[in-house]
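4.2 Preliminary Data

To establish feasibility before requesting continued support, the project team ran the inverse folding procedure on a target of 396 residues. The structure was first converted into the token representation described in Section 3, and no sequence information of any kind was made available to the design step. The complete token record follows.
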């Protein structure tokens, strides 16, 4: 079952978004009709902007790659915050989570088709494009040509759609990068100024994304923003990344706890990890990823386009030991995948994120493996209605 850390997201985002209420975004295009869920907030925003003579509206988002690990949950958060009609989810396949189809607009979109990207952005009157479409590290190594097309052509098409905006200012683009931009030359602790020499085609596409986004910001005024995510950990299946073992291990542990609670016999089959037990890599919880991404998107334009960020670092063995605090019989065997292990060995152990903390207050809550395990194994799903308490904000 798709899981979202709703309680923590609600608590943190309410504070963050309330703080952002003092900021406003002005457009030269006229306001479209707001959804019922966001009508009162949109009306208040319009009243506030009347004194300045500017036309203001609630932000509207086009999200590419919406059916991926991050996309499903970010779309849900944006819709619950800004209204169901605010966010057009897109991808090249239908989502397995029917909530995405039931709760708001959805459209097929191949990001390598530039005309289609621009057409949907114009039809939705998008003020922001959230570009998540990509092939992750391990999958990209198996399909390098496709990874380059999606990563490079897709990014160019999104930036062109942002620059060539019908009747208004350039659209804001948020497109995450990754620790995959680093290679062995970056050292064990990598940061914003570290050498970029990726070892994978996925990393190459992310370097291209960062540089092209910075170019469009300087030349065309596109407000391009990007975060170099480490491994993002949630209780959902990954999409072919090198750090997916962490989610697989935690989901295996969750299933054992569920079986115990139901009085079923738990499996005696050990979990098989595809990385060596001492492979030390940086990670961030999905909860923190959602909160901090919305914070970053909502901040005044930061000095940098791209920031390195992290939450915590650990090895498979350390995560295993954290799980054993609650499931003593939980066993793991290690059967390293040559491709993924080589990729992992080329990445840094941790990331230096002082600039993100200084410039826009990057502040993840989960900083230890024990805290991550406790969050994923023992949180309870909140009512969907609970998210309606998130206050409306105007994203910068």
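Position-by-position output of the design step:
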């Amino acid at each position: 079952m798709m899981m979202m850390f709703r309680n923590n997201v609600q608590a943190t985002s309410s504070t963050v978004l309330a703080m952002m209420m003092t900021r406003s975004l002005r457009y030269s295009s006229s306001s479209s009709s707001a959804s019922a869920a966001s009508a009162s907030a949109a009306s208040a925003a319009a009243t506030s902007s009347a004194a300045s003579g500017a036309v203001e509206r609630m932000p509207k988002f086009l999200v590419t790659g919406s059916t991926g690990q991050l996309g499903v949950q970010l779309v849900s958060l944006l819709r619950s915050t800004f209204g169901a009609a605010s966010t057009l989810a897109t991808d090249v396949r239908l989502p397995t989570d029917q909530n995405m189809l039931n709760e708001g607009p959805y459209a097929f979109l191949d990001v390598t088709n530039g005309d289609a990207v621009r057409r949907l952005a114009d039809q939705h009157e998008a003020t922001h494009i959230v570009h998540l479409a990509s092939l992750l590290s391990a999958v990209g190594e198996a399909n390098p040509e496709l990874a380059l097309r999606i990563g490079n052509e897709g990014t160019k098409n999104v930036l062109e759609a942002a620059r060539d905006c019908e009747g208004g200012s350039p659209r804001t683009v948020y497109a995450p990068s990754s620790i995959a931009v680093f290679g062995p030359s970056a050292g064990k602790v990598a940061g914003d100024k570290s050498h970029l020499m990726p070892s994978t085609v996925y990393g190459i596409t992310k370097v291209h994304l960062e540089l092209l986004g910075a170019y469009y910001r300087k030349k065309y005024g596109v407000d391009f923003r990007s975060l170099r995510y480490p491994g993002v950990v949630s209780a959902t299946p990954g999409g072919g990344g090198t750090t997916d073992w962490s989610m697989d291990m935690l989901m295996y542990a969750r299933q054992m706890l569920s079986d115990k609670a139901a009085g079923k016999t738990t499996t005696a089959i050990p979990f098989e990890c595809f990385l060596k037990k001492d492979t030390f890599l940086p990670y961030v919880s999905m909860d923190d990823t959602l909160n901090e991404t919305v914070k970053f998107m909502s901040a005044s334009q930061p000095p940098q386009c791209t920031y390195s960020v992290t939450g915590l670092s650990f090895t498979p063995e350390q995560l295993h030991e954290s799980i054993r605090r609650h499931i003593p019989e939980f066993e793991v065997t290690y059967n390293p995948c040559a491709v993924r292990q080589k990729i992992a060995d080329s990445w840094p152990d941790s990331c230096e994120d002082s600039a993100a903390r200084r410039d826009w207050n990057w502040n993840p809550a989960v900083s230890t493996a024990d805290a991550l395990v406790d969050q994923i194994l023992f949180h309870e799903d909140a009512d969907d209605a609970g998210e309606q308490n998130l206050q409306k904000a105007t994203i910068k």
